[in-house]
Write a structure and sequence with these properties.
The chain is an alpha/beta fold. The chain contains four helices and six strands. Strands 1-2-6 form a three-stranded mixed sheet, with no helix packed on it. Strands 3-5-4 form a three-stranded mixed sheet. Strand 4 and strand 5 form a beta hairpin. It is globular and about 45 Å long.
């Protein structure tokens, strides 16, 4: 338990997302319907624990889903799933080329 607590405390201090060369956004999870501009990400206070819902939660736990358009509830019970249309619109709006995620292995 001590080691788990140490890792959790460490993760609670890490940045929620990063932008590389103004063209790639990296995060653990995915997009959020609440994300309208990048400044929102940079304003998330760290260290902090992850809330059960909202932008911070979505950046860590949302998932892309090939079979849908728009947004839907995530069957895992936390955050959302989002379709290719959401990805394309987000990349275009923010002049980005790539979303790099760490959360899901397929």
């Amino acid at each position: 338990i001590k080691l788990w607590k140490l890792f959790t405390d460490c993760f609670n201090c890490l940045p929620v997302a990063a932008i590389i060369d103004e063209k790639i956004i990296c995060m653990h999870g995915g997009l959020s319907p609440e994300l309208t501009n990048m400044e929102q990400i940079f304003k998330i206070n760290r260290p902090s624990e992850v809330p059960d819902q909202g932008l911070f939660c979505d950046l860590l736990w949302s998932d892309p889903e090939a079979e849908i358009s728009g947004w839907a509830e995530n069957e895992r019970g936390v955050s959302y799933v989002f379709g290719q249309d959401v990805i394309s619109a987000f990349l275009k709006k923010h002049d980005l080329d790539l979303i790099c995620r760490a959360h899901q292995v397929v």
